[in-house]
Design goal:
30% of the residues lie in helices and 14% in strands. By secondary structure, the chain is α+β, with helices and mostly antiparallel strands. Helix 1 (9-19) packs parallel to helix 2.
Length: 105
């Protein structure tokens, strides 16, 4: 996988899942440590293309807790899938809430 180029990175990761019996990746949808307006969509399209679930995890700084949320198998309805993710994260407080991007693509 070529991490120095964004060229077809989604396709490269899907191929990695197809070529490995066991593979686990962790991604942050905001994709950066600076303020962004919206999430990156790659995690969703990787899961959809590879036929794997999205496991929502969280660190809630407001409640000083962390954990695992819903496991989402992407469907053909992107908006419905994003609503599940939005609903889950709506009560989670980020370490820097002012840097949090909107859950949309």
């Amino acid at each position: 996988m070529n991490r120095n180029s964004s060229y077809k990175i989604v396709d490269q990761v899907i191929e990695a899942f197809q070529n490995n019996e066991k593979l686990l990746i962790t991604m942050t949808p905001e994709g950066t440590r600076k303020k962004v307006e919206k999430w990156k969509s790659g995690f969703y399209y990787i899961a959809k293309g590879a036929g794997i679930p999205i496991i929502c995890v969280f660190i809630d700084y407001g409640r000083k807790t962390c954990g695992i949320g819903p496991i989402i198998t992407p469907t053909d309805n992107l908006e419905t899938d994003l609503n599940i993710i939005r609903d889950f994260y709506s009560n989670v407080t980020a370490k820097y809430p002012e840097m949090t991007g909107t859950i949309q693509f």
